[in-house]
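Board work, copied verbatim: CAAX protease self-immunity
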Amino acid sequence: MPRTDLKISLILAVLSFIAGFVIVPYQLQTMPEIRESLPVSVPVLSLVSSGQLFVMVFLLSFAGCKFARRTDLSLPFFRSLVSEESFHPNRRGALRSVVIGMFVAFLIVASDRFYFQNHIPYLQDHPPEFSILALTAGVLYGGIVEEALLRLFFMSALVFAGSFLFKKKPRGLYWSAILIAALLFAAGHLPATATLFDGLTTMSIVRSFLLNGTGGVFFGYLFWRYGLIYAIVAHMLTHVFMQLLFIPLFY
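↓ predict structure ↓
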């Protein structure tokens, strides 16, 4: 099992390394004002970011694999890639991944278009448009890095800690871990929100927790009920549906 965990962690770390080369240009695209304060060139910064992501995701994914095994949270798809275990796709899980990805994408874009842009001037002055960079960053960084850190590691660690303390694993323990991880997921977007909107307001904080937190709850549910790959697919599809369907449709 340790060798299997190492291989799974390495796969996620390599994908995260690639994501690092996309997320830096994307951040500079959405927040161009920070380019002037960069201490190094963009390629160097991307390489450093990629290296940091590789190390962080590798170490935390390895720990997450240990926690997941002890808490009945499954990674059958990834285990099938690095061992002789077979993977049998769950049709219901796959369908729910697609539906959830579409719903979360709709919620994010529609909420901004029909509500939040009336209360947050930046959204009204800067309507979104299709961006291949945003799509790629969302799929790789959101789908791989965030799911590895928040679902595989953090959510699994919470369930493991709770089961160790209470000597059992009731449904409420999993839901508590899902909600806490979702709140952390939403809170993690606050620094970028503050930079993008030139500070935090009550409305921008509500927006961050509502839109990001909702996705986090659904992705955590998929991880719990069906496996990590279904959470990853749903998260990736959220960005695909946003960029290819709902942004062109609503804007």
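The two ends are 49 Å apart (CA to CA).
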